[in-house]
Fold Uridine kinase.
Amino acid sequence: MPEENSPKPTFIAIVGASASGKSLFAQTIYDELLPELGANSIAIIKEDAYYRDQTHMPFEERVKTNYDHPKAFEHELLSQHLEQLVSSQSIECPVYCYKNHTRTEKSNTIEPTKIVLIEGIMLLTDKNLRDRFDIKVYMDTPLDICLLRRIERDTVERDRTIESITEQYISTVRPMYYQFIEPAKIHADIVITRGGKNRMAIEVIKAKIRQLSQ
Ligand SMILES: Nc1ncnc2c1ncn2[C@@H]1O[C@H](COP(=O)(O)OP(=O)(O)O)[C@@H](O)[C@H]1O
Ligand SMILES: O=c1ccn([C@@H]2O[C@H](COP(=O)(O)O)[C@@H](O)[C@H]2O)c(=O)[nH]1
């Protein structure tokens, strides 16, 4: 049941190139604030969870999708879910599988909270979505560092070979970064250097969240 008179949640978007440190940054803030604020106060949503469902397509077709284009995401559903949180309703957040390139049958229930961290590559490209965010943070990690981190992460966590990472990087990841992600930096309120372990940046965002949570 929606709670009446609950204040609108603060939506904090964390954007930047693939492997720029968005997840690490958001997760660190979440993990460090959770004991202080409690699970009713802070939540994380991943834009990647909203990659379109491709279960109707064969695997050989799914690997060919351009995952670095805004259209690869079901932003309408994400936007609808943010609206539900504003209305104090819980959401069923899809669970995406990078190995199979499609959604799983599972979902995660996310309850309305005061603070919602939303992280993903294309969050600022869509005006409707962008206008929902109260604070917009851009992870400005050099692209060569992102590539090195993506190689390490995707071989270990996402079942990729060096060949597949290289092919995808040249055909879509790098060109789409220059077409969509980097130009959206102008919409950011805060630009963060050095990635997900920038301790001062983590502390500044935590301090702002504490203030908003009072
Ligand atoms: N400042 C940093 N120093 C070292 N490793 C980092 C740093 N920031 C992120 N990483 C690592 O780089 C990889 C990509 O980071 P991740 O947070 O998954 O990026 P994104 O969510 O932007 O794709 C992860 O393995 C993460 O632990
Ligand atoms: O099925 C998929 C879905 C996504 N990707 C790649 O993931 C990144 C976005 O995730 P980050 O956590 O920000 O790295 C994007 O660059 C896609 O290329 C994929 O390869 N396969």
